[in-house]
Amino acid sequence: MFFVILFIFSTIFAITLGVPDLPFPQGDEIMHIRSIRESLELGSYTLPVLSGLPNPYKPPLLFWLGMFFDRIFGVSYLAERLVSFFFGIGTLTLFYKLYLSISKSLKETKLATFTFAFSFLSLKFFGLLMMEGAMVFFTLLYIFLFYKSKNKKSLTYVIWGSFFVGFGYLLKGPILHIYIVLFLISYLYIKMIHVRNGKFQISFDPIWKEKNTLLSFGLSFLIPILWISYLYLFTDSGKELLRFFFITENMGKFYATNQSGLRIWGGWLLYTVPFTIPILHILWISLKKPSNQRNQFLVMTILVFLLFVTIFHLLPNRKDPYYVTPFISLLFLLPAMKKISWESLVLSRFNSFSIPIIYFLFVAIAVVLRLPVLFSISLFGIIVTLSVIFFFRNEKFKFYGIFIPQLLLVPITMVFLLRPMSDPDITKQNINADGKEVCVIAENPWTAMDVQNKLKTSKVSFALPLTYKETCPNAEILINYSESTSFPDHFEKKTSWYQWKQHLILDSYQIADALRKVDKRSFQSEVSVWSKGEKR
Count of CB atoms within 10 A of residue 325's CB? Predict the structure, then answer.
């Protein structure tokens, strides 16, 4: 029954991936999709391209897989996003097997798999064409094979794990190698450092004992060396691509700090939603109550590893919260390591009372934004959760009365809050741009890439507001995302719509006043479409 339910939810989730604008977007996805489709159009299969030139920002694995799925299923958002979806299925499979190996409890494993599957991390990045979903998979794959290697006392598992890390290089470069090195350092640190009778002791014997594991990691460089050699020796622009990727794109991120480190810490809280409170609870238990049980060594290794990767991501200038996503699955594994049941974590007083509070917030948002379906569902959620907290004594019924409403928090947000509030679909705006030259006037070239991804049969160009006449002299249709652009008389305004602004400059009084008046125009800007032809 567990696998049937998981399959049904997975199928429903997969079907929704064909919608161009998902509830939880990520800007980089636009560029990745554009690179895949341009590469297919130009027949550049080996070396993906972007804007007509070799893509210097990321290695090719994600683009290769996207092109493969587009070839099988046809060029579409669904085909391209199935790449991350299948990485998600692979990750959940690894998670299930690893959790079961540690906990030995089938019931706890099923509960933990559901919590991880319905986390914000899973519901966002296993449905977007981003490297993050694949990075979660490859990170967990190595740790899973490492654990199996130690459990079975067989080097074969860790050899395969090291080899697969090489494929991870083809996603985002050497970053996965750094993660695994930090994991191995964490493992050796716990083995080497001891405090006994108030004395600090260090032993180097573990390094010698783990020499085969460390040496096997050399296999992870096989695929990167082959790919780098191919670029350097057999492509005209290979040297420039390597120089840009390693120096500008990677080392350049350590040049100066321009983002707050709180963003990284916020990522740990954000991507564990809606089970952030149980995760914080198990973290507190792990730190406060160390034990002598068999898995304590594994717990300490994971905690040190998470600290190391956090410190590492605090160093570059960019500190996006999603940088911590490859490690979120390890937090959901902690209850298995500590032999703590998910039932006790979910039924803790703080977590139990937080769920009706969140549904109360949903009710308030539904009233302000006039969303009747969200209001009804949230009201039902309040009744259910408060009833099981105050009136039911059956522990099993009480657990599921909290667990299921908590499990559904992110899906409810996606379907009943964000979807009704989403921007209009440009493909349904009667633009009549098939086969025509379209000029997108905006501040960001990614806006034009997004339009080109959606208007597949049109030829889309990008222009800044002040340069569109020179940039797009032959454009038949202008799509204007700038609020202060005027057009010549031979262009006629055909249609317009409003979309949410990405950057707002409003003080707290203006925001409060807009909310009081239910005036969403304060948060939106007009997008207008102009067609060449009659005078206006």
Answer: 24
